# Entry
Amino acid sequence: MTPLSRRNGHLHFEEVALTALAERHGTPLYVYSAGAIEARYRAFAAAFRSHPHRVCYAVKANSNLAVLQLLAQLGAGFDIVSGGELERVLLAGGDPAGIVFSGVGKTVAEMERALEVGVACFNVESKAELLRLEAVAKRLGVVAPVSLRVNPDVDAATHPYISTGLKENKFGVSISDAAALYRYAADAQALAVTGVDCHIGSQLTTLEPFVDALDRVLALVEALNRDGIELAHIDLGGGLGVRYQDETPPGIDAYATAILERLGHRREALMFEPGRWLVGEAGVFLTRVEYVKENEGRHFLVVDGAMNDLLRPALYGSFHGIEPVFDRPGTPAVEVDVVGPVCESSDFLGKNRMLAAAAGDLLAVTTAGAYGFGMASNYNSRNRAAEVLVRGEQDFLVRRRETTADQLAFEQLLPPLPVSD
Ligand code: LLP
# Structure
């Protein structure tokens, strides 16, 4: 289900006209649909209802507190990668016992805090991290739950920047080294082996890499069992793709069928860390046309949103749909580049789009709910956009627009210094 519909020429998100949101909250603006997030979460959980499982939302995809709160209320667990994400989840009402802590560079302070609140497990990515975790747990007099993130060396066939399961990536422990580390963890008093984890990449549009990765993980689980090590869960990470343009990612039921079939009668609980699939299509980025410009026959719409707001086109060359928020009947569409005000040639939201738009018009950049605001910055000293959550006919401002005073609050001028001549 997409929350977007066009009624009398005007784009709506759930029951709210996007024009009204732009008037009320200004632009650029992120808008999320509570209904779409909820529908996706329920569909994911329903697809795996025949097997014990937990859906741990990957917070990095969209870490707005209200989004986390919504998912916590639905019963989601959370996949975090930093102390900051941990505090967000706790503040949003997430249950610490539903949190898995991923990431290659966990600091001592992050481990301490996660142990203190009692996360479900650490997805450990190296021997050095395992030893550090053991030392921290020992010092605190607690037992750290451990799941090793293994690198199954499968090609996720996605953009190289978001592929993580190949042996040349920095992520995880190679499957061949994993058995020895499990043996070590099983013997360590301050560590408790709970599961195994893998995440091979993001925006995957076929099932094969998931199934290949699972096969390799299952071979490891069987070897561990022979060695007397039992696991409580198998975490298959996130990565299921969404539709930005003309991709045809598998549906959640096909994904679940493929995985459950491969799992056979194994009893370990399944865990998942979906991010994009839950929130990607549940968000749009609203931006207003400031200028219409022509250079040597090339047409540009200069808009008030930029690469600092939505980095994906600049960083990965990603495609996002761009739709006029209201129709302009009678105005012919022309081929345009939709560009922002940032001083970089990579500052574009879309290229070669057929659009009929004039200065002052609103554009909706679609499928912007994942890795949109979360990757935003203050580059060019731009204030980050506001975020709004829509539910039915209601809309809630869930992050106010930044001000320049907000940006300057962290900085300090130098004290008077002697001036050298
Ligand atoms: N688990 C782990 C350990 C991850 O590293 C990630 C994403 C996920 C789960 C969630 O993956 P998802 O279900 O969202 O595919 N900024 C990039 C995507 C980076 C993904 C990083 N890891 C983009 O905009 O495409």
The two ends are 68 Å apart (CA to CA). The first helix runs from residue 18 to 25.
